Amino acid sequence: MITKEMVFEALRDVEDPELKLSIVELGLVYDVRFEIKDGMQHAEVDMTLTSPGCPAAAEIMAAAHRAALTAVESVHINLVWSPRWDPKIHATEDARMDMGIWD
Fold this sequence. Notes:
Blueprint: H1 4-11, E1 15-16, E2 21-22, E3 29-37, E4 40-47, H2 57-68, E5 74-79, H3 87-90, H4 93-99
Parallel strand pairs: 4-5
Antiparallel strand pairs: 1-2, 3-4
């Protein structure tokens, strides 16, 4: 059985091409849910982008889809805008430091 942690680990390899940081470390991946579809495990991944006008949106979404497929047989990436991404809230401490965000 594939777990949420396994999908998050697969997504850890996907980087924001501008920030050069993992989408998981940035906190862009909000949730992973599972269901059985056509007899196989299917994952629904909720993620966001750093901004609605992100020029690399298609690239990031495609990379996330490919990465998630290394962990699960079927996946759909849902682009969500709520909650609005805030690096002070969603990014890991290491990612905030790399971005120069100090609390």
